[in-house]
Structure formats: C-alpha cells, structure tokens
Amino acid sequence: MSHPGSAAKAIPPALYTPEQRLRRDATAWTLVQGVLAPIQFLVFLVSLVLVLRCMATGEGEQWALWSVVVKTLTLYTIMITGCIWEKVVFGQYLFAPAFLWEDIFSMLVLALHTLYLFGWYHQNMSLQQQLGVALLAYFTYCINAGQFIWKLRAARLQQAREKQNFSGAGMVGAGAAA
Length: 178
Description:
The chain contains six helices and no strands. By secondary structure, it is mostly helical.
C-alpha cells in the first residue's frame, strides 16, 4: 500500500530551479570550476604521493612540504571562485541551501589546510606533525570532493528526469497503464 507523498520521497528535491540552472549555464564561473576541480585533484594526487613517499622513506621532504603549499593555494583558488559561482547562481557567497553541507564541510577542509600553512610558515610543527596535518586535510578533501561529485550526479539526474518528463508530456495516456 502506498502512502500519500511516497512518490515525492522517491524523487529528491530539485537541486536547481529553472532560473538557477540558466544562471549556472550562462556564467563563465561554471567553466572555471569545471577546469579547476580536475587541476586541484591532479595537484592533490601528486602531493599525496610526495607526502606518503616522504613519510615512508624520509626522502623528498622539501618537495612534499611545498606540494602541500601548492595544493592549499589551489584549494583557496577553487574556494574563492566557487563562492563567486555560488553568488551568481544562488544569490549568496556561501551556504546556499542546495550546497549547505558541502560548504560546511569545505570550512573544515580549509581550516585543516590553513593549519598546515600556519605550521609550515612558522615552523612550529615537526615534519611528522606537518605531514600528519596534510594527510588529515587530504582525507577531508576527499570526502568533500565526493560530496560535490554526488551533487553533480544529482544535478545530471535531475536534468535527465526533466528532459524525460518534457518529452513524455505530449504522449496521451502514457501513464494510464501504470
């Protein structure tokens, strides 16, 4: 037996309104985010290898430490441009309802990367502490990237459903047999 509203639970709420989708598709900031995200991921992978190598062998300390700095600067860049994108699409720089949890978790990712920079710059952490903070920052980054990939997938599914509903709207009696 189906309950009232059970069909609504099966379909998640729309990530974008039609107006927001138009703004998302029209702004150059969408392309900027689309380019920066894989660059940041590549920088992350290279840095992760360097950090793990340094932790395992003790070699390449400066390469490992500087790679985390580069990763952090890349993160700052994507965060700043992401805030601009969010302002254009949703009307606010951060914590738009559609990306609230992603933005909240992004603050943790930023805090850990910033903690690394602080320790690196002031040299008030041991090498192992710095690399440990970097690995924790990278772990949270992976979770956050997964959140955004999930949202991207949700947006694509939403768009596919809307196209399917639009193309099936003209069919007479299409839902009568169901």
